[in-house]
Specification:
The chain has 134 residues and is mainly α. The protein is 77% helix and 0% strand.
């Protein structure tokens, strides 16, 4: 993926995430809107179920609640804060620091044992979400 395409995709993803977060904060809990296709179809939560609520808890400063809702939420909150700022820095100063680090991380994730560990963590999180009854 080219640098410009990556930056565009990530900025759109972060903007979409911010907009959804604002929307989810403003809608009533009594409406019980469920966006997760997996949960709607199967009745079981997906590995990322609870991430929006976890981000909300993280932003309120409730780190333990955020972690127990879904640890992915902490990762998503941090990435949503850092990525746009880092990309903006690169664009202003005509650098490629984010892109070069992205390429390094992508290379590391492609290592078989690293990928296996990450997949196992996602599966464990999925099992935990099912057990919690999210």
């Amino acid at each position: 993926m080219t640098k410009n395409k990556l930056y565009l995709v990530l900025l759109v993803a972060c903007l979409s995430g911010f907009l959804y977060l604002i929307y989810s904060i403003n809608y009533s809990e009594s409406s019980h809107i469920k966006v997760c296709i997996i949960k709607n179809v199967t009745g079981y939560p997906c590995p990322s179920c609870g991430t929006t609520r976890a981000v909300q808890e993280f932003l309120k400063g409730n780190l333990m609640n955020s972690f127990f809702m879904n640890p992915f939420g902490i990762i998503v909150a941090i990435l949503m804060a850092i990525i746009p700022l880092w990309i903006l820095f690169d664009l202003i100063f005509k650098k490629e620091t984010f892109y070069s680090n992205y390429k390094k991380i992508e290379t590391i994730i492609r290592i078989r044992w690293v990928a296996i560990i990450l997949i196992v963590l996602v599966i464990l999180n999925w099992i935990w979400n099912i057990k919690k009854g999210l």
